[in-house]
Amino acid sequence: MMSTLKHRRHGSTKNSLFHVDLPSQSQQYEERGVDIPEEEPVTQPDLFPGEVVIASADNVLKFSPGGEQNTGISGTLFITNLRLALLTTLPPTYQEEALHHLSLSHLFLGAHDVELCLVSSVCLLDEQNQRRKTLLPEHFLPEKVPGIQVILKNFRVLNFSFKFSPYGEDGKVIRALLHHTNPSNVDLLFLTPGTPPPNTFIPTFRTYNDWMSELERTGCPNWRVTHHNENYNLSATYPPVMVVPSSMVDKDLEKAGHFFRESRPLLWLWGAPGGAALVVMAQISPNIPDTMSLNPRSFGQLKMSKLEDEAKAIENSVIKAVFRSNSEFQECPEIINLEKELPQPGDLQVACSRLRALHLPDGASASSYLSRFESSKWLSYVSRTLEVACRAAQLITEHNRSVILQEDCGRDGACVVSTLVEVLCDPFARTVRGLHCAIAKHWVALGHPFTARLGHTKREKHLQGPCWLLLLDCLHQVCVQQPHLLEYTPCYLAALWSAAHCPLYTTCLFDCTNSRHSTISRLQLQNIEISELWELWCWWASCKSQSPATNSVGDGASQGLRNSSSKSSNGAANSSNSRSSSSYTTTRTAETSFTTKNCNHSSTDTGSSRSSSTECSKSCIIARRHFISPLFVQGLLNSLLSPGALDRIRDKFSVAHHTWGQIQRLLSPSVCHLPYDGSQAPAPVRGCSPNTVTRPPTRSRLPPPVYVNYSVPRLTVWVELFGRWLPETDVSCDGVPLSSALHSQKRCILRPENPHLLFWDDIYAIYDVIKGYVDITADGITRDRRQEYAS
Amino acid sequence: MSVRPNQGKRPTLVGGVSDTSNSDTSSHHSEHNHTTSSSSSSSPVVSPRQLSPQHHNVAHVSGIVGPPHKQGSLTQASTHSGESSSLNSKLGRESAGSHSGSPPSPKSLGSSSTTTTSDPHHLQRHHYHPQQHLSSVLAGTSKLSTRDAIMRDTQLSPSALSSTAVTASTPVGVSVPVMSSAGRSPADRTLSRDEPTLCPGEVKHETARDVTYLCPYTGPKKGVLTVTNYRLHFCSVEPEFDLSVPLGVISRIEKVGGATTSRGENSYGIEIFCKDIRNLRFAHKQENHSRRLITEKLQNFAFPASNKLQFFAFHYEEQFPENGWTVYEPIAELKRQGLPTESWRISRINDKYEVCETYPAVWAVPAAITDSKLKTVAAFRSRGRLPVLSWLHPESQASITRCAQPLVGVAAKRSKDDEDYVQQIMDANAQSHKIYIMDARPNVNAVANKAKGGGCESEENYKNAEVQFLDIANIHVMRESLRKLQEVCYPNIDNSHWLSNLESTRWLEHVRCVLSGAARITDKIENHKTSVIVHCSDGWDRTSQLTSLSMLMLDGHYRTIEGFIVLIEKEWLSFGHKFAQRVGHGDDRHQDSDRSPTFVQFIDCVWQIMRQFPHAFQYTQDLLLLILDHLYSCLFGTFLYNSEHERVDADVKKSTLSLWSLVLSHAQDYQNPLYNPATRHHVILPLTSIRHIRLWDTYYCRWNPAMRNQEAVHQRYRELQHLKEQLDQRVNDLRGNLAARNHPQPPSAPAPPAPTSTAV
């Protein structure tokens, strides 16, 4: 097959399009208007501080994802300690471009770049591009490697061929790739892409205030914040500040700690105003050496059974403390043993690798897809997790009964279930900002071992278990069943899965707060400059495409948001627009405050005229449109239609005012960068907004939780994540998206598209109408006032 | 009656940021509780505490049955403090649904929810009073909102045959006599508990009291069973429950339990096997002797063809403002495609159905062929079904022609005329020097057919032709596959092996195959500008599926409501898909091997495309459900008989009504709010890998209450559009107000005008 490749060279010696008689493909490129510039070859990708090029190979061919081995692009392949980068002047395919726009790492990386953390395995290809064997670092490489297949954790597959690359470079590249995909230490992953955007106001749950305001927000009584773990002396994996029952003094806590695995007795995560709380607790384990220090004199005589009895007693006392915290004293807390009910991380890893094998281009045989999917057990895991979460949510909201999630160390399944419970019960957690807070609380603060579970380092590969993916899929199911209740979409969840493997974002990099601190201080000792870290939610902040000061630009952005999808399809034409646009320079100056780095190599083809910042904002605009659920916005707009609500928009204390504020934040990126203004306190759990006049806070019961049908037939296979890169076997459906086809009268083939996306036009139409209304009334008021003064 | 009383009250959602989501949740939840309360009915008193999610699920899925319990108490208990808000939002949605889709038309209101019976007395008693009903809901006196009542109805009574989605959201509903009970208020219903609301022309024949309906999901219900010449109607008072099944869907009736052998409760009765993926079981009391009477009447009226009776369609006397029989005019449709052209002409050679009995009277054939040659070509094709034009590309002149297999036989016969004819079809398209012959069958089947005198064109004899096999299995395989699917879907679903069970039915795989074949044809026509000839064995099953699906992808006209009707009339009805035989209308030979769900499979494929391209269709899946329901119901003459010829002989157009009359008279109900007319110019090519094929659960699993809670996007969108209209109006009012104030008003005008809620 390879021998039939016609090697066409365009201008530059390095970059070329190769092609095997498939006219439509070359046509496609020509139609996009990519002119291959006569410029000096690009020598190296733009590097981040601390990023080093390890190896490179010229004239590497990258096949279009999917199994069709006849089209692809050629360029120079670089392996750095951060990523695998292909330097080419050729644009990515539609699919790649879409992925690029809809990933959170597009702020830093180019369309042809892949973070090394995402690499799941590297396989050797033979001359016929058939997969031969999986390469391990210790494997001996043949003299000449025809090609490799890189399998990514986000279910994508990349094929590279070294057929035309100089002798010896292939081996160097592969060895570098294998070595740096498996770093021995999380320190080695560490890079900072520059100053992050200003405060995003997502609490870190490392300070007293964060937990205190969370307690206040939820209105959950009888719990207190303790500093007891400030130096990680209670538990190495707990956050420095935590919430425990009021009836439990620090000494009790300390004592109880000795009897639990990893000294994790209990941690409050969420509660209802009625007093029901969501608590995570580890299993008791009396045979830790620490017990000796508890009672060194008598330890020698103590039998194991006695120790166990004591541990049981301690466990009981902890449960009692939780019980006492529930003001209504109705029923004892429900203890859910997650080890019995949920899959273990190891199970998840097996399921996930089966899914990955199933979604390889040659792995999915059509006739057995469903049964193979079933045999991965993934859906049944999702179903079980949702069931547990629904049960817990029901107990808390309907029966005001506290729920204790007990698990081995309380760091895996507990994170998934507790997040889900909060999403099901608390309307705030169904917003983007609420989701971020939940991640910060239930995952980062609780100490989910991200490094181990996501397999960031070599040492802990065997501990992998994508609990994080389990959560995302569960949320995806909620999104599919109740799309109007969640502010985010499955598309955003898919982006979160990939972003967890981008080491430039530190949220999903560490095992616990402690290891985060120690890593950073270690690096600081080595004189590595570490400024503020980028959290996942920084994306939303940097997504602010233009500074609020330049209003005209801001309008342009919101305008762009509306036309964004049409822009995406004719990217090249768009670039010429942006070149000529007058607002471009303004954007650039406004953008200099952020040192957002964009190493989009495809942008080099149009020279320096195509700025990275406009490119980035375009991606951001497209992404926001995909990440925010229009049905949720519709719900907000609906509520503004209640009688008189529009008139109350100007009243700062009214619900309508806040709803309108939120709509503005969601719809116009020029107003605020996060979907929620960080300076505002998050809405209290009860669901009523700060308007205390209309609805005084009562210790009423919570509204019923979101209803999710978790029976397997009702669950949806997340094809958009798992199967997104698989080729279509019958006919290649390379159409255009509807939104860009709408205006052309030319007959063309349409591409299947998410129906929700088309809601945006109408949502914006309504938004504009309300905005006009508000402006008119504002005019009316000022005029009235003026006239009053005049009279 | 023409204006809904609560029209102005639509925006009742009060609250802000999280308020909205709250009330949304609660309304959802309460709905859900209704579902469970009416369906799971576990114990006489269910305290909210016991209502764990497991509980719900078990009850739903495995159909645990038990005595019913009070409806109201559970509702009250489970909505808790959120009751007021949930009621609010319910009303908000309620009224939104009620008049968002269709501007309230007295016509549809009347016919959908009232009983347009000829008997005036009857009419008075059952008359639907939307005003009274809605006001009671608004006042909060009724425990059940309209929506709940309807939910219950659609959930439980399969009487709401057509379109659960429409009824759930728009009380206006679809005006089909089949489901006429759906819109009635509970109060009205209690008045007429025992009596089914008859449609015009319907006559009651037998009534049996003390019959128990054994619902697989919600347990046995005692009530009254009525058989008319059109339907079987079951109705119970406690719990309120209606079931109305057109006799046409019955495929077989079996007696369960003998007079002496039946012991336990509910073991003596009848079981009715339906064509629409469900079985009904009724238990009779032996001492009443009701079983014999009911069975006799059922046997009689369910199988009119076997009993030499007329179909009910000939008795049905409804009046529709539109006439569906005139929608499809063959000449007009060909003219729309641009015929006659230089290379295509319209032939009336089959005017008397003499050349080909199963073909329509009007054909479009290459201009180059003479009528006498046509006859010789017909002789070489199975049953005289020679290649005739189905669709012509408006720009490239690439064409889809359909036919039956050539009569090649074991001797490998040839027909020069047929070969020339194929050449002429290719020549009619100047853009390409090639023609594809798509044989829908698997290669082996085509070879096997040689033994019966059939076969396939050989590429040697047909110059420039390329034969491709599309590997679609025959009607027997499809029938078997759907039977297996029914086993998997009805009545209960095995959660733990759902996917593999689904796969073992191979239904999705068959659907994928059909779709993929159609996509390949579309690809050849659109991307390669090459003409395609499609055939299978006889050219009336798989061929119809392929041509109509590829036409649906290629031509946006067929994605409008009228266009879809034309597509079905043209490719299915006029080209002789044997509806009578495949469905077995009024025929009691339930094991007839000629039956097959070919048309159901086609509609399934349409749904698959629709799911991938929600903006490209003017209609929603409600229309598809309606069509499938009336495929069996025998209420309309549309799907009766095997061919145009037979229909002309039976004078169907004069003596029966057309299903399309109903559709067009209530087109609003089937309109897709997401539809974007700009897509009419474009071609849609669905993804056909198995990952993108989903089970059409709104059809196959619709009797299972646990499988019914997904959000309908188009319903949301309808609400959104409504919202936009309201706002536009409101702002315009305001602008007017302001303009008025700016000029002559004194300065002491009151604060900004507060538009009254009724203005909206």
TrEMBL record, chain A:
It comes from the Eukaryota. Residues 205-722 form the Myotubularin phosphatase domain. Transmembrane segments: none annotated. Pfam families: Myotub-related. GO terms for biological process: phosphatidylinositol dephosphorylation. Residues 562-587 have a biased composition (Low complexity). GO terms for cellular component: cytoplasm; membrane. Residues 551-587, 595-614 are annotated as: Disordered. Belongs to the protein-tyrosine phosphatase family. Non-receptor class myotubularin subfamily. This is Myotubularin-related protein 10-A isoform X1. The gene is LOC108671766.
From TrEMBL, chain B:
PANTHER family: MYOTUBULARIN-RELATED (PTHR10807), PHOSPHATIDYLINOSITOL-3,5-BISPHOSPHATE 3-PHOSPHATASE (PTHR10807:SF128). It is an enzyme of class 3 (hydrolase). Residues 324-700 form the Myotubularin phosphatase domain. It comes from Hyalella azteca (Amphipod). It is a peripheral membrane protein. Residues 186-203 have a biased composition (Basic and acidic residues). The lineage of its organism: Eukaryota, Metazoa, Ecdysozoa, Arthropoda, Crustacea. Keywords: Cytoplasm, Hydrolase, Lipid metabolism, Membrane. Its main location: cytoplasm. This is phosphatidylinositol-3,5-bisphosphate 3-phosphatase. The gene is LOC108666072. The keyword Metal-binding does not apply.
